[in-house]
Amino acid sequence: MNTKKIWLSSPHLGGSEQKFVQEAFDTNWIAPLGSNVDGFEMDLESYLEKEIHVAALSSGTAAIHLGLILLGVTKNDEVLVQTHTHNATVNPIIYQGATPIFIDSEIETGNICPVYLEKAILHRIAVSKKPKAIIAVHLYGMPYKIEEIRAIANKYEIPILEDSAEALGSTFKGQKCGTFGDFGVLSFNGNKIITTSGGGALVANSKKLKEKAIFYATQARDQAPHYQHSEIGYNYRMSNICAGIGRGQMEVLDNHVALRIKMHNFYENLFKEINGVTVFKTPNSDYFSNYWLTTILIDPILTDGINRETLRLALDAENIESRPLWKPMHLQPVFEEYPYYGATVAEMLFENGLCLPSGSNLTENECERIAKVVKSTFK
Ligand SMILES: *Cc1c(COP(=O)(O)O)cnc(C)c1O
């Protein structure tokens, strides 16, 4: 096969990244601190448009871990988390020796279901204890039910860790995702809407909490001329080289969002006439998705048996990457021992859902290749 591989989502550079990286070399700031780290944090703070404070870290996973630590999650605590997600949302709960309590999705946004969330809280309080935190995720850029989840969190006084790893640029009622939680998490992994080659950030509500995050991210050093420690620390700070890439990427973030939405529109058009295929979209105009990935649901009863695997394999045969939606965490061998509250929405999303190539750098020719496979699969 000599056609170029079409990826789900690949890095898309803007042009200024090398300038910022070069600056780091020129000034010899090849370290996990320096002007790019400070500059990238400031760029993010002004982008998010709220009174928030951002700590740049080595990954989104590190940000989730530090968020849990700052929320006081520790051994034997319980943390409520949506089951339909990336395993990186859940692993840090285990790092802390805590227990994940998995919650099903609702069908409108595909994210944490408020009904099962509240049921789970009441049941945990009855049989065990009050959970220490809620992790809600904006999957594929789609905001979760912000108001419903916040109302439950407030009612039971449980803080929210907002996993916005996939949703930089998304908004709800005009407010940027990443700023709704007691802490927010961003990721700049290679496949995200912008990348630093690898990196993440923790969004905090105060300067003090940001500083505390940086303290833990830099080995938890007490004030002293020598290395003095009263707490366990981590090596989680972002490198000044990576932050340079991030500063360049911030210049093109809005454009990347526009291009991802263009890909979403391309798919809406493509599947318009195809019975049994639904392009997943925002429930109403309060929601604005960056459409990091466009996802579809295929109902094989309405498509004469064509299912998500039929399409995935047909795309794969043409060197085009697509991927089932996240397999629910409560069905993963590594997590199957933990409690689950819900029905089968997340399972259905996994069984029938497919993520389609959605990169901001896809060419017209590549879109035509995708369209050709879709049309011949559903002819
Ligand atoms: C990518 C991702 C993460 C982890 O971010 P990394 O930077 O890859 O560690 C966490 N949660 C979700 C939902 C993600 O998509």
Order of helices and strands: HHEHEHEHEHEEEEEHHHEEEHEEHEH
Number of strands: 15
Number of helical stretches of at least 4 residues: 12
Structural class of the helix and strand makeup? alpha/beta
Q: What's the rounded overall pLDDT mean?
A: 96
Sum up the overall morphology in one term: globular
Small molecules in complex? pyridoxal-5'-phosphate
* Largest sheet: spatial strand order: 1-9-8-5-4-2-3-14
Cα distance, first to last residue?
A: 24 Å
Query: Regions with pLDDT < 50 over 5+ consecutive residues?
Result: none
Over the alpha carbons, how many angstroms does the gyration radius reach? 21 Å
Largest sheet: 8 strands, mixed
Strand fraction equals 5-15%
Topology:
Blueprint: H1 17-26, H2 35-48, E1 53-57, H3 60-70, E2 78-82, H4 91-95, E3 99-103, H5 114-127, E4 133-137, H6 146-156, E5 160-163, E6 171-172, E7 175-176, E8 183-187, E9 200-204, H7 207-217, H8 240-250, H9 253-271, E10 277-279, E11 287-288, E12 294-298, H10 308-317, E13 323-324, E14 340-341, H11 345-352, E15 353-356, H12 364-377
Parallel strand pairs: 2-3, 2-4, 3-14, 4-5, 5-8
Antiparallel strand pairs: 1-9, 6-7, 6-11, 8-9, 10-12, 12-15, 13-15
Helix pairs in contact: 1-8, 2-8, 3-7, 5-6, 10-12
Pyridoxal-5'-phosphate binds at residues 59-61, 85-86, 88-89, 137, 163, 165-166, 187, 189, 200.
